[in-house]
Write a structure and sequence with these properties.
- With about 140 residues, the chain is α/β, with parallel strands linked by helices.
- It has a single domain, classed as HUPs (Rossmann fold), CATH 3.40.50.620.
- About 40% of the residues lie in helices and about 20% in strands.
- It contains five helices and five strands.
- The protein has a five-stranded parallel sheet, sandwiched between helices.
- Helix 2 links the parallel strand 2 and strand 3.
- Helix 3 packs parallel to helix 5.
- The radius of gyration is 15 Å and the shape is globular.
- The two termini are about 15 Å apart.
- About 30% of the residues are buried.
Length: about 140
């Protein structure tokens, strides 16, 4: 067994502006910082104008990443899982860090699961982040992958 550490160069962090966005971005930020990597912060708009989403995504980047983390933002239009996988492939992402809402039952059947599809179809590791409802989310000091 080798003791070689896995180094991530590009981390894709798709966000949907849900309450889990902060925890997801901060988790990805720690990985990016530890690996001296680049983060691609992505939001997918299913249809309609992207201008508002671009401004909102820029605000997320400014608030949670500042200027110490190498990153770029991107807004794509289409089906979220398809676009996340497309951007991951195009940018040669080594890791995808994304939120999962943990829906079950009828909600899961009706709404589907973007994270589930990305996990199933991604050629690279996917770290899903799930916040605790009604509690302050805790980010571990280190993430061992």
């Amino acid at each position: 067994m080798s003791n070689t550490l896995i180094r991530f160069r590009t981390v894709l962090c798709p966000v949907d502006f849900s309450p889990n966005t902060q925890l997801t971005v901060e988790t990805a930020r720690r990985i990016v910082d530890q690996n001296e990597a680049t983060m691609v912060l992505l939001h997918v708009v299913e249809s309609g104008p992207v201008r508002g989403a671009e401004k909102r995504l820029a605000g997320v980047a400014k608030e949670f990443l500042g200027d110490k983390i190498t990153h770029r933002i991107e807004v794509a239009t289409g089906k979220p899982a398809v676009e996340i996988l497309r951007v991951a492939q195009r940018d040669s992402a080594d890791l995808i860090v994304m939120a999962t809402h943990g829906r079950t039952g009828v909600d899961h059947l009706i709404l589907g699961s973007v994270a589930e599809r990305v996990v199933r179809e991604s050629p690279v590791p996917v770290l899903t982040v799930r916040g605790a409802p009604g509690k302050h989310a805790h980010i571990p000091e280190s993430v061992l992958l």
